[in-house]
User: Fold these one by one.
Assistant:
Number 1:
Amino acid sequence: MATDLDTYVKGVLDGKRAVIARAITLVESTRPQHRALAQELLTELLPHSGRARRIGVSGVPGVGKSTFIDAFGTLLTSLGHRVAVLAVDPSSSRTGGSILGDKTRMERLAVDPAAFVRPSPTAGTLGGVAKATRESIVVMEAAGYDVILVETVGVGQSETAVANMVDSFLLLTLARTGDQLQGIKKGVLELADVIAVNKADGPHERDARAAARELAGALRLMHGKDAVWTPPVLSCSARESTGLDTVWERLEQHRTLLDSTGRLVAKRRDQQVDWTWTMVRDELLGRLHADPAVRSLAPVLEQRVREGELTPTLAAERILGALGSSETDMS
Ligand SMILES: Nc1nc2c(ncn2[C@@H]2O[C@H](COP(=O)(O)OP(=O)(O)OP(=O)(O)O)[C@@H](O)[C@H]2O)c(=O)[nH]1
């Protein structure tokens, strides 16, 4: 059933779940006629967006992200918040575009009327998935959700992509001490604003607390004593819903700090500009790979570079020179 722009806008602003779901499907679509309508919709919704707390949640598979988001989201809705859960997982085939996958992953939240759980778009490339998620944030905020949790798989570039679309970045980790700390990628520690050692329950509770203290010390060294914000390291149990209130408090503190220093506005503006250039780069790359002249020229040039007959610099220049030209024999 085709839906017109006004129906989309009104339905989203009224918080109608079926329309919100269709609006997100629209912004995820790569079909040209959908893209045009999606941009019109986003233009209408943009003035109604921007008021939510945007939080990234990351951690390696097995750390307990689903359990955490289910418990954390439930805590937030009990405090009166409306919570949207989005995900960036370009490798995701687990949901196949249906919401069922996440319904079973987040049992309580999926049936909570104050929450909306949306699985990662299965668009394929990270650029495509990130674009759809960024635009879905606009839809969810316009629909009145005031906490947006963006989940990411703890591998590859997805974390950086998510860090670039949220205000605060929460890293979930497991009890590790000493040498095991090396196992946490430094890059992801640099993105983290709050860290929580999960599964601090039963026999693991003491280990988790000790690991949190050790990691906190490492972070103080990393950030220096004059840092405006040193990421706090907490411990929690998603399974038993303990320590989650402190995680929320610290995320709130981080957001208040950003807000009071004017950095939240600056950060979001920078993210918009960053997003623009990311899309320009993705689009250019897409055109490059689809260009007939480039496609016929590239294998020849690659071969000549392999044979040492042509420098990579000259080959790159020729590839770029071929873009958009109908000449195919430029080797
Ligand atoms: N003891 C304990 N186990 C937990 C806790 N949180 C999650 N788990 C368990 O850890 C396993 C992985 O949990 P998931 O929530 O599926 O974690 P995940 O692999 O990061 O999640 P996805 O990537 O979303 O699939 C499950 O067996 C959970 O029951 C916790 O706080 N304590």
Number 2:
Amino acid sequence: MKDAIGVVPGLAVILVGDKKDSATYVRNKKKACESAGINSFEVRLPEESTEQEVLNAISAFNDDASVHGILVQLPLPSHMNEQNILNAVTIEKDVDGFHPLNSGRLAMRGREPLFVPCTPKGCIELLHRYGVEIKGKRAVVIGRSNIVGMPAALLLQREDATVSVVHSRTKNPEEITRQADIIISAVGQPNMVKGSWIKPGAVIIDVGINPVEDETSP
Ligand SMILES: NC(=O)C1=CN([C@@H]2O[C@H](COP(=O)(O)OP(=O)(O)OC[C@H]3O[C@@H](n4cnc5c(N)ncnc54)[C@H](OP(=O)(O)O)[C@@H]3O)[C@@H](O)[C@H]2O)C=CC1
Ligand SMILES: Nc1nc(=O)c2c([nH]1)NC[C@@H]1CN(c3ccc(C(=O)N[C@@H](CCC(=O)O)C(=O)O)cc3)C=[N+]21
């Protein structure tokens, strides 16, 4: 990195509590940083920490010139206000793209976010790399979370797809999904989309990570 751009970028991760999968994701990010020549910084706080302690950690990284990106691993413990915490990350270092100013810019025509949430961005990248045309196509996003579904729908719309969003209150998800040329599914429960929901030839990306019991596995 230093040879390419003259500085060694720094990524700071704040992990609150000891959720197993969160710890795995954070470990993977650290490894990815090492292989890409990025310095990684990590703050681990106990589950019982106060919101103020998390805000203090963010503030220190906001002021640290060797840190260029700040990730607050989600979900946070339920006693913390996620909005307050995500608002505290300076938008120039909001590499997750979760600050409302970055989400707002993503939603507005003629505006550019400084950062776009990585998973939806990865979905669009997959479509591009596989040569899937997006422009003018009907796309359905299943799920509307701030971190995947909503930004995925906005990105598809920016690529000139006609987008529908299916969520838990949608009355006829099967009928809507069957019209799609492109489906991005981001739901926290397994086996939601059935074969009969998919138009032959449609392209589908499943973002969900949902463990299921496998009786045939020893
Ligand atoms: N591969 C990756 O990089 C990533 C994967 N994930 C995985 O993606 C999945 C979704 O994550 P996330 O978006 O954070 O989850 P959330 O729980 O925040 O959102 C789930 C969404 O699914 C919708 N939903 C739930 N049940 C139904 C249903 N029966 N029919 C239609 N819609 C439904 C919810 O609707 P409503 O809004 O109405 O409640 C909500 O919008 C998870 O499995 C997660 O582990 C997440 C992040 C990154
Ligand atoms: N602030 C914040 N930013 C996030 O980006 C964020 C988050 N919080 N909270 C949780 C979700 C989930 N998420 C994943 C990232 C990579 C894989 C991934 O690479 N999965 C590997 C397997 C990983 C493994 O389980 O070993 C795979 O699907 O092949 C999965 C999920 C990011 N999230």
Number 3:
Amino acid sequence: MKINILEDYQELSQAAATILIDRVKKNPKSTLGLATGGTPKGTYQQLITDHHQNGTSYQHVTTFNLDEYLGLAGENPNSYRYFMNAQLFHHIDIKIENTLIPNGVTMNTVEECQRYEQLLEAKGGVDLQLLGIGSNGHIGFNEPGTSFESRTHVVDLASTTIKANARFFPSIEEVPKQAITMGIGTIMKSKEILLLVSGEQKKAAVQRLLSGEVNEEFPASILNQHPNVTILMDKAAAGQGDRHRVLNGSY
Ligand SMILES: O=P(O)(O)OC[C@H]1O[C@](O)(CO)[C@@H](O)[C@@H]1O
């Protein structure tokens, strides 16, 4: 794993955007895996700024998002489709039909999960997957205990996840209890992974990830077995004392 510690959230977002832009320039037909939540918002802002200032084009890029709440249609401001359109897609030149997100209002979740996996396979998989991490180690919406072999599936959200994500909803009662998420096996098939970690509340998760333990009770721990992972974290997530131990290197 490559680990890069940035001064703050702003620098972290800039560093993540720089990597994404580099990959898109090298391969304008890239397939990007994208994430939602608070962490990647700054990265998306940087991509939009770069698109306007430097003209980086996404015309031939395809994107697959990690997850979507079950029961929320794309028009719902709390759906991840709505989030992605508002935070990124509507501000760059990507073709909206090339932005794939699981359908949260499907009548048949089994078929929807299979369809998503097939679309991914038809595209040859994800070139670069952007990830965040939950405080309990979830990646996508894969909660502790999810099989490392899992493919796109329906999950019951952990109560801690519901609580954490309630900040985006008018009330905690309105947070959906289930979601469709790419599986851990699906995520691990990505050729390259970029994990963003920001804030002191993620410090414990980072420490557990870097302990090297690989355990289904801590989903992100599987990243220790991926051959091409970069972790970008800000100082707050790294912890002040940890700075010298894991400074900008490999371990
Ligand atoms: O970036 P945040 O808001 O801390 O979320 C962390 C992770 O949690 C999720 O939002 C799911 O709860 C993921 O999509 C995200 O990567």
